[in-house]
Amino acid sequence: MSFQKQIGQSLLWRGLYFVTVLVMNVFISRYFQAGDAGWIFYLCNNFSLIVILAGLTMETSVNYYSAKQSIDDDRLAWFSLIWTVGVSIIVFTGLWFYFGRYKNTTVITRSAYLFYAICYISGIQLTNFFSSLFYANKNFFLPNFLMVIINLIVIIFIPKQEGTENTNTVLIINLYFAFFMITGLTLAAAFIIKKGSWKNISLPVFKDMRLLVKYAVIALAANVIFFLVYRVDYWFVKKYCSPEALGNYIQVSKLGQMLLIIPSIISSVVFPHTAGGSTLLTEMKDNIMRIGRITTLLFVMLILVIAASGMWLFPFVFGPTFQLMYYPFLLILPGIWALSNLYILSAYFGGINRVKVNVKGAGLGLLVILAGDYFFIPRYGILAASLISSIGYFVNFIYSFMLFKKEHPVSFTEYWTINIKDLQWLKSIIPK
Fold this sequence. Notes:
mainly alpha
C-alpha cells in the first residue's frame, strides 16, 4: 500500500477513534463541570507522567524495531505484556508505600487512588505497546475499530446516569478509568490472536534486549521533556489559579491536543516508512512540506472560525462553567500549528534514529515555558499560560525545522505557499 493510501486509511479509522474520544471528553466535562472535570483530567496528567517514567517509553523501541523488522513481532508482543506487568507491580508497590507513609488527602481513598492509577497506567501502557505494533505492521483499521467500540459503550452509558434518581458519580469515575485497562487488554488480545503469537511464546534474546533498552533510554529523555513541554503549565495553573480556571485551561489544552490528532496520525505513518526505508528521504521531505502547507491552510481557517464563534461555542458544547476558554484557546492556536508540523518532523528524525534532535529541541522549548510560567502565570493566569506555551512550542518547532533545513533544501516560507499539486496529493489520500 502506498504512503498516501496508508495515510488515508489511518486518517479514516484513527480519525473516527479520536472523534469518539472528543465526544467522551464533552460528556465527562458536562457531567462533572469545570471544577471536578479539571480534577479528573489533572489526575490523568499525573498518571501519564508515571507511565513515561516507569515504562521508560519502551513502546517507542518496540515500534522502531518492529517497523525495521529486525526483531520478531511475536517476541515483541510477549515482551510488551511482561514489561507492562512488571511496571504495574512496581507502580502499585510504590504508590501503596507512598500513600501509607506520606500522602495525606481527604479527596479520595487510597484504594480508589490505586484503582485509578493501575487501570490508567497499565491500560495506557498496553495501548501504547500494541497500537504501536499494529501501526508498525501498517494496520490502522483493527486497533482503532476496537477502540471506537469500547469508547461508544462508555459514551452511551454516561448520559443514562445523568439526572436520574440513581445518579452515581463514583460509578462514572470508576468506569472512566476502567475503560483504559479494558482498551489495553483488548488490543493486546487482538494483536496476539491476529498474528498467531500464542503459538510462539518467546522473548527477545539478550542482544535484542540491549537494543530495545538503548533506544528506549534515549527516547525516554525526549518523551519526558516533551511531556513537560506540553503539560508542565498544569502544575503552575493549579498552584496559582482557581479550580474553575484549571478546568477551563486543561480543556483548552485537551482541545489543542485533539487538533494534533491528524498530525499524530500522519506521523504514525511517517515513522515506519522512514525507519523501514520503504520511502526515499527526498520523497519523504516533499511529503513533509506538503503536509505542512495543507496544515497551515487548515489552521488559518480554524483560527478565523474560532475568533468568530468561540465566545459562545465553548460554553454551549462543554457547559456554562467553561466560559473562560475563548481567549486562552485563541492564544494557544498558533503554538498548536507549530506542534502540528513538529510532530511530523519528530517522526522523521525518530525514524532515521536521530532522537537527540527531538530531545534538544524540546529542551529549548521547555526552558522558555518554565521561565515564562514562573514569572507570568501568578499575575496573568491562564492567559499567560496559553501564550507562553504557544511561544515554547514555536521555539521547539523552529529548532527542528532548522536542522531539517540543513539536510534538505527547504524554506520556512514554503509552509505558506500551497499549490494545486498539494490539493491533488490531498485528494489522493482520501479513501475511495
